[in-house]
Please model this.
Amino acid sequence: MKQNKKTEDNVIFEVKNLSKVFGVKKADRKKGSGGIRAVNDVSFAIREKETFALVGESGCGKSTTGRMALRLIEPTEGDIFYHEKSIMQLKSGEMRALRKNMQMVFQDPYSSLNPRKSILSIVAEPLLIHNMVENKKQAEEQAKELLCRVGIREDQFDRYPHEFSGGQKQRISMARAIITKPEIIICDEPVSALDVSIQAQVLNLLRELQEEYRVSYLFISHDMSVVKYISDRVAVMYLGTIVEEAATEDLFANPLHPYTQALLSAVPEADPDIKKERIVLYGEIPSPMNFPSGCPFHTRCAYATEHCNDFRPARVEVKEGHFLACHHWERIRQSQRKEQEESHG
Amino acid sequence: MKKSRKHSDRYFMVKSLMKNKLLLIFAGITLIIAIAGILAPVIAPCDPYLEEPVNRLMAPCKEHLFGTDIYGRDVFSRVLYGVRLSLLVGVMTALISTAVGIILGLLAGYFRIMDAVIMRICEALSTIPVYLMAITLITLWGVSTKNVIISMAIVYAPLVITVTRGVAMSIREQTYIEAIRAAGASWSRIVFGHMLPNVISPVIVQMTYIFASAMLVEAALSFLGAGIPLPEPSLGNILNEARNVIFSSWWLVVFPGLCLIFIMLGINVLGDAIRDVLDPLSN
Amino acid sequence: MENLLKVKELKTSFQTLRGEVTAVDGVSFEVKKGEILGIVGESGCGKSVTSQSIMRLYNEKELVKYEGEVLLEGNNLLKLSEKEMRSVRGNDIAMIFQDALSSLNPVFTIGNQIVEAIRLHEKISKKEAKKRAVELLRLTGIPIPEKRVDAYPHELSGGMRQRAMIALALSCQPKLLIADEPTTALDVTIQAQIMDLIVELNQKMGMGIMLITHDLGVVAHTCQRVIVMYLGQIVEEGMVDEIFKNPSHPYTKGLIKSVPTTNTDVSRKLYTIKGVVPLLSEAGEGCRFCNRCEMATEKCRTSKPHLYSMKNEGHRVRCFLYEKGGDCHEAK
Model:
């Protein structure tokens, strides 16, 4: 199912140097002038029919990034491109019209559907908002078709959200997002509130819809196993910055940033056979309110030096398509290789 | 067991309310009084304005169920018309203040800038005691039924605004509002299409309260002479006219008073029941 | 190993608007001294109700009815008076919850709450109790415990709060610790720290732990024995390796297959269990899983399977597929 997309490089969506500082007045929104630095200089591009994942722990800014991509939250700095055109300058009306091409699916299936509307009208509404149909009846026809497609029974169309289970609600949310045939859907932790057996159903549905509608996903998640399964490329976020970005296979086989390594080693796998050398991270994520100087990870990094303390590592391409923000990755890799050899020998 | 799926939670709530005898009794009495009031022109045995000086201050008897007043008018008919007018004032006040309150409350709850302006005005208004405010407005505009309703609507609108705004602010933070915004909806669709249906049920509960207390305030205003102009019968007017003869003619006070008490109780009990039915989960 | 807790045919039913609902239906298991027992299942399977029933945390006057026996070292907890039960809670059995912020009282410092808990069950001075509190915080890996003891819950991060709650739970050296989704609200790196701590405490203090979770990954790496629940019943029970390598109940099999691991083949579709978990009130006559089961036969729809013992000791499965393999475990 997965295709090699190295050759075709049709980027449809791109963010450049996106930053968000909360709680500071417009006048003094300069770098380092206090406030909560939720997202710090984030750039990535999403190609056609690709799943691009943003992973990280809570508070790392991945959800804020997702919302900024749709301008649901206004970025403090940076630019967003849709088909190579900046959307930052668009007026609110133009932005609204553009949203039919960019939709969103939210984490909490319980609060993301209006409890006072039938699911049919919820799914049909985006068509009416964007005048994509002539009348309400037509919108409902299309909504019915799509609801059937995502696996909701016909006799349930007039029911209200609270009569559905979490997984069904998430299917309804998917239908609402895809009904305008968008080019990109931002999925903010779409399966993390679901039970394990339901999670698999929704993940399969996401993939099937991608095939049918040729849609790209920006998939935001904290669950490494899910990300491994669903995405083509992954960016790991820590404290508002992307520390490593690579093709999924590459990242999981060959993580280079010490944070990615620790994160991967901490994932509890539902298989007692997978025995991992756990890299224990001491301490906790620093508060974004007093953002550390230099490399954001240096307070918890086992390899940190003075240099990391003072200078922010630049984003470098260490291998084709594999980006990294670490001063010492080469040194780290060498020392890890040596350790491995020693333990084997 | 299978049956349970077909019915909503609301159905079960109504069913359990039906078992509440006290509720049913009060609701029944209130309903009878209200219907009698609404049908006053049909039911009333006499013209409420017809003065028969010969029959002044007659105790209740066959011809005059509730007796007659100092001008010899039939108290039963006057009470019926009084209930009718009081209900009208209550309903109109509740409707107007709710309509105004919901719109302003939603706007305040959605737009932060409007919030500051609207809420400051509301706070200022609510510092003035209800009666003082109503009397002032009526004195300014002159005594008439219309002015009584309008001034009371102004007094009660801040109540609805505050409730609506509170609910609206919590709804604004819900993901489904963000979801519809992400789908490209305009603010008017968000506010009136999605937030409005969600604020209705708490506001309806508030409305029953306004309905009841507006009737009470109207009675008090009429009693003080600042309400419905005489000789039109309202429950307050009847009491007002009776105040000099309270000790000799008890029926002038007891019957309109009882009506008022029962309507108050009934509406309050009903308001609670409505809340339970509309929001089964809050219980 | 000796049994610490023995639950026999526990049945918990609630009175709701729609009539009686039996959330836990005939659950029997035991926790041995010093072992970590995992209870897994999806939401609504009754795993939390089971633990709350053991602690008798529901308002018994109106809503809930318990049947069966909960024996803590031979002492039936369901027969105790409310007053006797209070001394069991916290003293013999302690509990930690998913949401540490709402389980700690926001207006008292961490230290205050631990001191109060200690002094509730033991007669020692405040000063001594506070000393003990600092020790407990140190034990749970909170840095600079002398200082943190005077912190309020909101001043601590999520992971620290969870540690503080564990310290509070350990304050009276309970024989049994019930951990209800202790790491669900935490990040993976913090989750790993907390699970390590729980295992370490288990080894150090030798208490029995009941770990209730929906996360198969957590179970795979911390528990010795596992119970899988579905719709208020135990469907499978066995040692961890047994459950993960040789899952026998179709539900357990499906559950394990549907969770992606980093070893999962990404080119294939994920295995899914069809349908959704039905409502308790919709459970039919037969096996509760029959509507979602690929192996279901007519028999499954009409009669109830018991827990059957498998070849390996302690491995029990509630499925007719294994009816002949072992002898019926429940004498009914």
Observations:
- Chain B touches chain A through 16 residues (CB under 8 Å).
- The radius of gyration of chain B is 22 Å.
- The mean pLDDT of chain B is 86.
- Residues 59 and 250 of chain B are 9 Å apart (CA to CA).
